[in-house]
Amino acid sequence: MTPEKLIRLAEEAMTRAYAPYSRYCVGAALLAADGRVFLGCNIENAAFSPTICAERTAFVKAVSEGVRDFSAIAIVGGKGGRITGLFPPCGVCRQVMREFCGDGFLIYLGGPDGKYETRTMSDILPDSFSAAGQMQEYC
Ligand code: THU
């Protein structure tokens, strides 16, 4: 699976965003170690706090299907579904990613004109608190 293909899948997921309040549409495509891809979009709510981000939707779908090993995620987003720049994951999504992903997990941030930038888990959440690090007695 190339980064370009994963980003295209994230763009497809973005078309399904439910974002009537912020109008920011976000899509994520999560690549599992076995090659399966889980798509996610943001799903907003009138009460605001129940809103779930695209990345967490993808993780929730995968983990609830018994998948916990991941290699990469592609993320795209923009107002009205128009990609005008990178759409980096929020802090909550970074922490959820960290629960299941090691330092080398790849994050592809899709931008306009097919351009993208690559980050690693350790780039976007250094000095993190994690199951593998501090909570070993529970693993
Ligand atoms: N959003 C995501 O889907 N992912 C992120 O990492 C950041 C924010 C969504 C939540 C909300 O529906 C909209 O973008 C504006 O914050």
Q: Can you tell me about this structure?
A:
There is one protein chain. By secondary structure, the protein is of the alpha+beta class. The protein has one domain: Cytidine Deaminase, domain 2 (3-Layer(aba) Sandwich), CATH 3.40.140.10. It is built from four helices and five strands. A five-stranded mixed beta sheet has the order 2-1-3-4-5. The longest helix has 12 residues. The protein is globular. The mean pLDDT is 97. The structure holds tetrahydrodeoxyuridine. The site of tetrahydrodeoxyuridine has 13 residues, from strand 1 and helix 2. Tetrahydrodeoxyuridine (THU) binds next to strand 1 and helix 2.
Task: Summarize the entry for a quick read.
Helices cover 27% and strands 24% of the residues.
Secondary-structure blueprint:
Elements: H1 3-14, E1 24-32, E2 37-41, H2 54-64, E3 70-79, H3 91-100, E4 106-110, E5 116-120, H4 121-124
Parallel strand pairs: 3-4
Antiparallel strand pairs: 1-2, 1-3, 4-5
Tetrahydrodeoxyuridine binds at residues 19, 22, 24, 26, 42, 44, 51, 53-55, 89-90, 93.
CATH topology name: Cytidine Deaminase, domain 2
**Architecture, CATH level 2?**
3-Layer(aba) Sandwich
Percentage of β-strand residues: 15-25%
Instruction: Please trace the helix and strand order, writing H or E for each element.
Output: HEEHEHEEH
- Topology, number of strands: 5
Neighbour order of strands in the largest sheet: 2-1-3-4-5
Instruction: Look at the structure and give the CATH class.
Output: Alpha Beta
Specify the structural class: alpha+beta
- The number of helical elements comes to 4
Helix content: 25-40%
Termini separation comes to 30 Å
